[in-house]
UniProtKB/TrEMBL annotation:
Gene Ontology cellular component terms for the protein in this record: Fanconi anaemia nuclear complex
Gene Ontology BP terms: interstrand cross-link repair
Protein name: FANCE protein
Superkingdom as given in the UniProt entry: Eukaryota
Species the sequence originates in: Sterrhoptilus dennistouni
Gene from which this protein is expressed: Fance
Any Pfam family: FA_FANCE
Domain Fanconi Anaemia group E protein C-terminal: 9-192
InterPro entries given in the database record: FANCE, Fanconi_anaemia_gr_E_prot_C
Length: 193
Protein backbone atom coordinates (compact mmCIF):
# COMPACT_ATOMS: atom_id res chain seq x y z
CA UNK A 1 0.00 0.00 0.00
CA UNK A 2 2.96 2.32 0.37
CA UNK A 3 2.96 2.48 -3.43
CA UNK A 4 0.01 4.85 -3.26
CA UNK A 5 2.12 7.62 -1.80
CA UNK A 6 4.21 7.57 -4.99
CA UNK A 7 2.97 8.65 -8.41
CA UNK A 8 1.35 5.75 -10.23
CA UNK A 9 0.06 5.86 -13.77
CA UNK A 10 -3.69 5.39 -14.07
CA UNK A 11 -3.65 1.78 -15.32
CA UNK A 12 -1.27 0.80 -12.49
CA UNK A 13 -3.50 2.30 -9.82
CA UNK A 14 -6.66 0.84 -11.37
CA UNK A 15 -4.92 -2.54 -11.61
CA UNK A 16 -3.83 -2.35 -7.97
CA UNK A 17 -7.36 -1.45 -6.85
CA UNK A 18 -8.76 -4.34 -8.87
CA UNK A 19 -6.16 -6.75 -7.48
CA UNK A 20 -6.96 -5.66 -3.91
CA UNK A 21 -10.71 -5.90 -4.69
CA UNK A 22 -11.41 -2.44 -3.27
CA UNK A 23 -14.89 -2.31 -4.78
CA UNK A 24 -16.01 -5.31 -2.71
CA UNK A 25 -13.76 -5.19 0.36
CA UNK A 26 -15.47 -5.34 3.77
CA UNK A 27 -16.70 -1.96 4.95
CA UNK A 28 -14.70 -1.95 8.24
CA UNK A 29 -11.55 -2.28 6.12
CA UNK A 30 -12.78 0.59 3.98
CA UNK A 31 -12.92 2.84 7.05
CA UNK A 32 -9.37 1.90 8.08
CA UNK A 33 -8.09 2.35 4.54
CA UNK A 34 -9.64 5.82 4.23
CA UNK A 35 -8.10 6.82 7.57
CA UNK A 36 -4.74 5.69 6.19
CA UNK A 37 -5.32 7.72 3.01
CA UNK A 38 -5.88 10.88 5.06
CA UNK A 39 -2.50 10.42 6.71
CA UNK A 40 -0.63 9.96 3.41
CA UNK A 41 2.09 12.46 2.59
CA UNK A 42 2.14 13.94 0.05
CA UNK A 43 -1.57 14.10 -0.71
CA UNK A 44 -2.91 12.02 -3.55
CA UNK A 45 -3.07 13.70 -6.93
CA UNK A 46 -6.51 14.70 -8.20
CA UNK A 47 -6.50 11.82 -10.70
CA UNK A 48 -5.43 9.23 -8.13
CA UNK A 49 -8.10 10.43 -5.70
CA UNK A 50 -10.74 10.25 -8.48
CA UNK A 51 -9.70 6.68 -9.34
CA UNK A 52 -9.86 5.67 -5.68
CA UNK A 53 -13.26 7.36 -5.25
CA UNK A 54 -14.54 5.31 -8.15
CA UNK A 55 -12.96 2.05 -7.01
CA UNK A 56 -13.87 2.39 -3.35
CA UNK A 57 -17.34 3.90 -3.51
CA UNK A 58 -19.03 3.99 -6.91
CA UNK A 59 -20.45 0.46 -6.98
CA UNK A 60 -21.45 0.64 -3.32
CA UNK A 61 -23.26 3.97 -3.67
CA UNK A 62 -25.08 3.10 -6.90
CA UNK A 63 -26.29 -0.20 -5.46
CA UNK A 64 -27.74 1.28 -2.24
CA UNK A 65 -31.31 0.16 -1.61
CA UNK A 66 -31.31 1.15 2.06
CA UNK A 67 -29.43 3.78 4.09
CA UNK A 68 -25.65 3.28 4.07
CA UNK A 69 -24.14 1.43 7.02
CA UNK A 70 -22.28 3.46 9.63
CA UNK A 71 -19.00 2.03 8.29
CA UNK A 72 -19.73 3.12 4.73
CA UNK A 73 -20.88 6.54 5.93
CA UNK A 74 -17.71 6.93 8.01
CA UNK A 75 -15.54 6.00 5.03
CA UNK A 76 -17.41 8.37 2.69
CA UNK A 77 -17.21 11.23 5.19
CA UNK A 78 -13.54 10.67 5.82
CA UNK A 79 -12.67 10.53 2.11
CA UNK A 80 -14.79 13.63 1.40
CA UNK A 81 -13.07 15.59 4.13
CA UNK A 82 -9.84 15.67 2.11
CA UNK A 83 -10.75 14.77 -1.47
CA UNK A 84 -14.20 16.26 -1.93
CA UNK A 85 -13.57 17.69 -5.40
CA UNK A 86 -12.57 14.41 -7.11
CA UNK A 87 -15.23 12.62 -5.05
CA UNK A 88 -17.91 14.95 -6.43
CA UNK A 89 -16.63 14.64 -9.98
CA UNK A 90 -16.90 10.84 -9.79
CA UNK A 91 -19.77 10.03 -7.42
CA UNK A 92 -22.15 12.95 -7.83
CA UNK A 93 -21.85 12.79 -11.61
CA UNK A 94 -22.69 9.07 -11.56
CA UNK A 95 -25.68 9.53 -9.25
CA UNK A 96 -27.02 12.38 -11.40
CA UNK A 97 -26.83 10.22 -14.53
CA UNK A 98 -28.40 7.18 -12.89
CA UNK A 99 -31.92 6.61 -14.21
CA UNK A 100 -34.83 6.03 -11.84
CA UNK A 101 -35.69 7.37 -8.45
CA UNK A 102 -32.48 6.55 -6.57
CA UNK A 103 -34.02 7.53 -3.23
CA UNK A 104 -31.12 6.29 -1.10
CA UNK A 105 -28.56 7.89 -3.38
CA UNK A 106 -30.44 11.19 -3.23
CA UNK A 107 -30.58 11.06 0.59
CA UNK A 108 -26.88 10.28 0.72
CA UNK A 109 -26.03 13.19 -1.59
CA UNK A 110 -28.13 15.52 0.57
CA UNK A 111 -26.35 14.37 3.72
CA UNK A 112 -22.91 14.79 2.17
CA UNK A 113 -23.80 18.27 0.87
CA UNK A 114 -25.21 19.32 4.24
CA UNK A 115 -22.43 17.95 6.43
CA UNK A 116 -19.22 17.12 4.59
CA UNK A 117 -18.44 19.15 1.51
CA UNK A 118 -16.33 22.30 1.40
CA UNK A 119 -17.97 25.39 -0.14
CA UNK A 120 -16.12 25.03 -3.46
CA UNK A 121 -17.36 21.44 -3.70
CA UNK A 122 -20.92 22.56 -2.94
CA UNK A 123 -20.59 24.95 -5.91
CA UNK A 124 -19.34 22.03 -8.02
CA UNK A 125 -22.36 19.91 -7.04
CA UNK A 126 -24.67 22.77 -8.00
CA UNK A 127 -23.00 23.22 -11.37
CA UNK A 128 -23.21 19.46 -12.00
CA UNK A 129 -26.94 19.45 -11.20
CA UNK A 130 -27.53 22.38 -13.53
CA UNK A 131 -25.87 20.48 -16.40
CA UNK A 132 -28.57 17.78 -16.44
CA UNK A 133 -32.35 18.02 -16.86
CA UNK A 134 -34.01 18.70 -13.50
CA UNK A 135 -36.10 15.94 -11.97
CA UNK A 136 -37.96 15.45 -8.70
CA UNK A 137 -35.02 13.28 -7.61
CA UNK A 138 -32.64 16.26 -7.85
CA UNK A 139 -34.80 18.85 -6.10
CA UNK A 140 -33.86 17.71 -2.55
CA UNK A 141 -30.16 17.90 -3.45
CA UNK A 142 -30.65 21.43 -4.79
CA UNK A 143 -32.50 22.28 -1.57
CA UNK A 144 -29.56 20.90 0.45
CA UNK A 145 -27.15 23.04 -1.59
CA UNK A 146 -29.24 26.15 -0.88
CA UNK A 147 -29.51 25.14 2.77
CA UNK A 148 -25.77 25.65 3.08
CA UNK A 149 -26.40 29.37 2.44
CA UNK A 150 -23.16 29.74 0.53
CA UNK A 151 -22.41 32.88 -1.42
CA UNK A 152 -22.72 31.73 -5.02
CA UNK A 153 -20.55 33.13 -7.81
CA UNK A 154 -22.74 35.47 -9.94
CA UNK A 155 -22.51 33.25 -13.04
CA UNK A 156 -23.64 30.19 -11.05
CA UNK A 157 -26.53 32.08 -9.47
CA UNK A 158 -27.56 33.35 -12.91
CA UNK A 159 -27.50 29.80 -14.27
CA UNK A 160 -29.57 28.56 -11.31
CA UNK A 161 -32.21 31.26 -11.81
CA UNK A 162 -32.30 30.69 -15.57
CA UNK A 163 -32.68 26.92 -15.08
CA UNK A 164 -35.51 27.40 -12.57
CA UNK A 165 -37.30 29.78 -14.94
CA UNK A 166 -36.93 27.42 -17.91
CA UNK A 167 -38.03 24.36 -15.91
CA UNK A 168 -40.98 26.01 -14.13
CA UNK A 169 -43.67 24.75 -16.56
CA UNK A 170 -42.55 21.12 -16.06
CA UNK A 171 -42.90 21.51 -12.28
CA UNK A 172 -46.15 23.47 -12.19
CA UNK A 173 -47.68 21.09 -9.61
CA UNK A 174 -44.50 20.32 -7.62
CA UNK A 175 -44.46 21.51 -4.02
CA UNK A 176 -40.71 20.76 -3.81
CA UNK A 177 -40.03 23.00 -6.81
CA UNK A 178 -42.15 25.80 -5.30
CA UNK A 179 -40.16 25.55 -2.05
CA UNK A 180 -36.94 25.66 -4.02
CA UNK A 181 -37.97 28.82 -5.89
CA UNK A 182 -39.02 30.47 -2.62
CA UNK A 183 -35.66 29.57 -1.05
CA UNK A 184 -33.80 31.15 -3.97
CA UNK A 185 -35.93 34.29 -3.85
CA UNK A 186 -35.50 34.59 -0.09
CA UNK A 187 -31.78 33.90 0.03
CA UNK A 188 -30.69 35.86 -3.01
CA UNK A 189 -33.40 38.54 -3.15
CA UNK A 190 -30.92 41.37 -3.63
CA UNK A 191 -29.39 39.64 -6.65
CA UNK A 192 -32.54 38.28 -8.31
CA UNK A 193 -34.77 40.66 -10.24
Amino acid sequence: LSLMSHPLCHPQLEGLCSFLQFSTCPEPFLVRFCSWLLALTPDLSYTSAAILAEQLFLRRVLSLTQPPSRHLMAALTSFCSKYSHPFCRVLVAAVLQEPGEGAEQTKLMCELVEECLEPHSVHLVLSQILEVPLSEKLLPVLQAVLGRQEVLPPELLDLLVLTLCQQAPAFATSLSFAKLVMAVLTMYQSQVS
